[in-house]
Every structure is written in structure tokens, then in C-alpha cells.
Amino acid sequence: MSVLIVNKNNFDSVKTSSKPVLLDFYADWCGPCRMVSPIVEEIAEENPQYLIGKINVDKEPELAQKFNVLSIPTLAVIKNGKVISQSAGARPKAEILAMLNG
Fold this sequence. Notes:
The protein is an alpha/beta fold. It is built from 4 helices and 5 strands.
């Protein structure tokens, strides 16, 4: 499954997904974000049981504010409409998967 570009128009359907959701808050100019992006895409391809979304903080500042994103990349995991885990900074694949499984 591919990564979904999340914006304020489709956020409600993403938030209420029956699958666990991983959101990657990023910006095109952010070096660490570019390091995390291929990992997030790999997780999306290998794990169809998850919904993986990316939110560009420059284009969607309201969503970034809603999640109190102060630095990027920030990864957030949502289950049953609630944020269960959130972390800022680049993370290795194993840590991101642990967030999803946690």
C-alpha cells in the first residue's frame, strides 16, 4: 500500500480509520525528514495492515498545530481515533514499527 498524502480535507477519514495510522509530519526542506521518508514508504509497502500518511507542515499548519508539532520530522500513531504515541526526530525502522505495535 502506498503512503497517503493527508490534508485537512481527508484528515477526518484518516483519523477514524479502522487500521492503526502512522502520520509523518514533514517539510520538503527538512534534511532529517528526507532520511525518514524512505523508511515510512517502506513500512507502508510492507505493512498493508497500517494506514500510513504524510502531512506537509508548510501546507497544513492547522494539522501540525492540532498535533502540537514543534519540530520535524514528527511521527504520530493513532488508534481508534486517539493519538497513542508521538515522537519527534528521525527514528530507525524498528522504532517506528514498535510505535505502531505498541
